[in-house]
Structure formats: C-alpha cells, structure tokens
Amino acid sequence: MKWQANGELxxxxxxxxxxxxxxxxxxxxxxxxxxxxxxxxxx
Length: 43
Description:
mainly alpha, elongated
C-alpha cells in the first residue's frame, strides 16, 4: 500500500483494502463499507 503526501491511501490501494474487508465482513458491514467508500477504482 502506498500513502499519498496528503496522508490518504492511493485510490487503487483503498479499493483493494475495502474489497478484502468486504470479503471477510458480514453482509451488513460489507454494505456499510460500500456506502462509505468514496472512490471508485481507476483502471
């Protein structure tokens, strides 16, 4: 994972992290992760 100068994760790293968390969390928490994720992955 790569942190940007502003202290945030790079967009792709954030997407990967959320995807991994969604895979192991309950459906309710997984839905909340989707809702809170402001970024879409960039190709």
